[in-house]
Design brief:
Largest sheet: 6 strands, mixed
Number of strands: 14
CATH class of the largest domain: Alpha Beta
Shape: globular
Number of helices: 12
Radius of gyration: 25 Å
CATH topology of the largest domain: Rossmann fold
Strand order of the largest sheet: 6-7-8-3-9-10
Helix content: 25-40%
């Protein structure tokens, strides 16, 4: 029997919003001599996203994130594989899908700066063919949702980057989308503006809107995402629930010690330091030592081992973060 602890978990269990099966995308490109060759952009990727989840698609530039976004939003067709958004095939029912999704790109500048925020949203209401009698209630609700009520009748030319990005979110919600695609939504924003935007994303997720997110800020992904796929060179190299991924990489945890050393030569030759090279003298016989245990030992075991060579004055455990995992996964393998 499955016991679900929240309404959000129940919705997630009941409904898959996006399903990607063996997705491949190739581009034809010209090389020297004008010969056309095929270049693999996405290499057989698969993943699912449940209703109300914030799904992070993470990876370096050129990893295939933008191509994946364009396929999910029906702007590109895959070379092979199947992609379903809200149960609809992106190759056959793209017009239906477009009515139920929306997207925002980080650093967007496509705003009409001589309009006020309300006028701007009214224009998009008309594009989405919203009945005019509903304009006021929809605009008021959306402006309030993104925290721009005090600037509703202010010209966009006076807005900060963060305010403009919040206005983009309001615009993207006019068609009441079930899936919202956010491509680096906080890029270029100051910390306050970025925090406001993250809070809005959390709020939208709680309302049952599925969020697909790309970001280069790992702390942002760690705060927002329920599930994550790491992309590298067109392949998914790690995928799963955020908490499961963090648990999987606990071997990357870092231990910091301050130790009064009695046997420095013995410490340097110890098994504990075979995979750990970061240490420095603070003053005579006092060492700072940073361990990145490779054998899944805990901090107490490490401290006990170090006590054979001196007195541990201070110990601290730095827990693994998504940034640590990202850096580990993106390392170039050396032959």
């Amino acid at each position: 029997m499955i016991i679900l602890s929240s309404l959000k978990e129940f919705n997630n269990y009941m409904e898959t919003t996006i399903e990607v099966k063996n997705l491949i995308k190739k581009y034809k490109t010209k090389m020297k001599g004008r010969k056309l060759i095929e270049k693999d952009i996405l290499k057989d990727i698969s993943f699912t996203v449940q209703k109300g989840e914030v799904f992070g698609l993470l990876g370096p530039n050129g990893a295939g994130k933008s191509t994946t976004f364009k396929i999910l939003t029906t702007l590109l067709t895959p070379t092979s594989g199947e992609v379903y958004v809200l149960g609809k095939n992106t190759k056959k029912r793209e017009k239906e899908i477009r009515k139920e999704i929306n997207f925002i790109f980080g650093g967007e500048k496509g705003v009409y700066v001589n309009l006020t925020a309300s006028e701007y949203l009214a224009y998009f209401c008309s594009l989405y063919k919203i009945p005019k009698k509903k304009f006021d209630s929809i605009i008021t609700e959306l402006i309030d949702l993104v925290g721009l009520s005090s600037a509703a009748h202010q010209k966009i030319s006076t807005f900060s980057k963060g305010m403009i990005q919040r206005l983009h979110i309001a615009r993207s919600l006019i068609n009441n989308p079930k899936v919202l695609f956010l491509d680096e939504p906080t890029i270029g924003l100051d910390p306050v503006g970025a925090k406001i935007l993250r809070d809005i994303v959390k709020n939208l997720s709680q309302k049952g809107i599925t969020i697909i997110l790309t970001t280069h800020y790992m702390h942002e992904a760690e705060e927002l995402c329920d599930k994550i796929a790491f992309l590298k060179s067109g392949e998914i190299i790690e995928y799963g629930k955020k908490d499961d991924i963090l648990e999987k990489y606990t071997h990357l945890n870092i231990f910091d010690f301050m130790i009064k050393v009695k046997d420095k030569d013995g410490l340097r030759k110890s098994k504990l330091l075979q995979d750990n090279k970061e240490f420095k003298d603070i003053k005579e016989n006092i060492l700072f030592l940073r361990l990145n245990p490779q054998h899944n030992i805990d901090i107490n075991t490490a401290e006990s081992e170090l006590s054979n060579y001196g007195t541990v004055i201070e110990s601290k455990k730095k827990l693994i973060t998504l940034e640590d995992i990202y850096l580990e996964l993106m390392k170039e393998k050396r032959c």
